[in-house]
Please model this.
Amino acid sequence: MATYRNRFGPHNPGETYVTHAFPEQLADLGEVEMNYATVGDSSQPALLLIPGQTESWWGYEQALHLLGGHFNAYAVDLRGQGRSTRTPGRYTLDNMGNDLVRFIDVVIGRPTVVSGLSSGGVLSAWLSAYAKPGQLIGAHYEDPPLFSSQVGPAIGQGINQSIGPMFLLWSTYLGDQWSIGDWEGFLAAAPDALPASMARSFPSRDEPSQNLKEYDPEWARAFWYGTVAASCDHARMLRAVKVPVLLTHHFRRVDQATGALLGALSDAQAKRVLDLLDEAGVAAEYRSFETMGHSMHGQDPQLFTDTLVEWSTSLAS
Model:
């Protein structure tokens, strides 16, 4: 039986990482070293790309080939993902958001458009509310689990009625920093532990996927138990947004038998996001892509680039 206990992470790069089309760099931000790749040059608008949970910077790899013609783009690994530092006990939205504030200061050094997917979309919202004055021009929330990634959301389904059961499995069978690494136990437990709608699409494989190898499963525990957002209520955060926002909303469906949410956020939750942005007094554009998978930048890099370029050009005008 293959064991993956303590196999993956920056301490064991040979087992963990593969090469990519763009060179990678590390930025010293104090508590963490943040890994990133960049394209374009300083004559173009600055763009910060924030990956989703279990996604390293190279989730944007195909999009970067296109984005480089329009932006000076920076795709990062968040703490606990990719080649960036693991920080046991320190995975919170506030800590990760402040990493990005320092990254904008130390590496980008000028006003920036930000785009984040999934949990990275929640961090895009965090930056749109709490970044330092003048750091952000606008924020794209790409299919973010606003409210749905909370334990007790202000509206709609919470983490236990969305992706949470998968997070609990990762936490239980992989363990913080891969301290358990029981991949076979994870595969065996999944069919019974996951809701039927999630189990039907469960990808069974002989070994962990590359993106999971680069992921600290303590992230999953922080979301399942709610510690990640304990000091960052989503509704309060959205009321504090200070820059224009683009919200792209992808596939979603509510299981009528269980009330579980398939997708990142429901229509009711998206409407509440827009209502709160209206209360904040900022311009918010909503675009629905009901047939699009969770990651537009991964599934259709051209559409992602076109959407981002069109919206960001409207900001400049």
Summary: The domain at 22-158+225-316 is CATH 3.40.50.1820 (Rossmann fold). The chain has one domain: 22-158+225-316. The longest strand covers residues 33-39.
